[in-house]
Specification:
224 residues; alpha/beta; Rossmann fold; Arc Repressor Mutant, subunit A; 2 domains; 5-stranded parallel beta sheet; 4-stranded antiparallel beta sheet; 8 helices; elongated
Length: 224
């Protein structure tokens, strides 16, 4: 899953991003609302962590406008404004959750997991393709009841392919989902992740669930 952290305090943003990467997320950082707009125009994020006092405007107003335009990505407000009135305004403006700084990294990650597994949200809690199951909250997978050990990028790839099961997922979309802007991506990085995931599935008896379509992308199908 890919997150956007909108925070102008570089040290805090880096600490939050590092903690969330340890929890299995790919993270981009936007130090201003203009940068956030630019990032969100090219990447479909799974969730946002939003500060309010930003150098080019107030995150509260920014979110209210975006919600009015149909922006439906889950948003966790992370701000120093802790008064009851501030929390009410934040939630009324369209935040899905509100957390006051300083916040423990584990709580930030837990709040995001809760947002991403809410019924009716963008992310359904458990994905299934045949005997293959993936819990999007815990980031754990199993095939026919047997655990499937995955790296963070393998888990992200599996989630994407399972969400689009039966459809071709293009290579550029996979790269966008798996890697943040500042990640170095080698020419064969996607192929390497696909190959590792395919081998892990085959080792559990899943067969050929991931198909390569040359020049197009990758397709996941139940082989049963």
């Amino acid at each position: 899953m890919r997150l956007l952290i909108i925070e102008d305090n570089a040290r805090l943003a880096a600490l939050v991003a590092a903690s969330l990467r340890d929890s299995g997320y790919a993270c981009d950082i936007a130090p201003s609302l203009d940068v956030a707009d630019a990032a969100a125009s090219v990447v479909r994020y799974d969730a946002l962590v939003l500060d309010l006092g930003l150098p080019d405007g107030d995150g509260l107003d920014w979110l209210r406008v975006r919600r009015g335009q149909g922006f439906d990505v889950p948003v966790l407000m992370l701000t120093a404004r802790g008064a009851l009135d501030d929390r009410v305004k934040g939630l009324d403006a369209g935040a899905d959750d509100y957390l006051v700084k300083p916040a423990a990294p584990d709580e930030i990650a837990a709040r995001l997991r809760a947002l991403l597994r809410r019924p009716g949200g963008r992310s359904n809690p458990v994905l299934s393709v045949g005997a293959l199951d993936f819990d999007t909250a815990s980031r754990r997978a199993q095939f026919a009841g047997r655990p499937l050990e995955l790296t963070r990028r393998e888990a992200d790839l599996l989630e994407l392919l399972m969400r689009e099961a039966g459809s071709v997922v293009r290579r550029d979309r996979i790269e966008t989902a798996l890697y943040a802007f500042d990640d170095e991506v080698s020419p064969n990085a996607i192929e390497a992740v696909v190959s590792r995931l395919r081998r892990r599935l085959q080792a559990l008896g899943a067969g050929e669930m991931i198909h390569t379509l040359r020049g197009l992308g990758y397709l996941m199908q139940d082989v049963a």
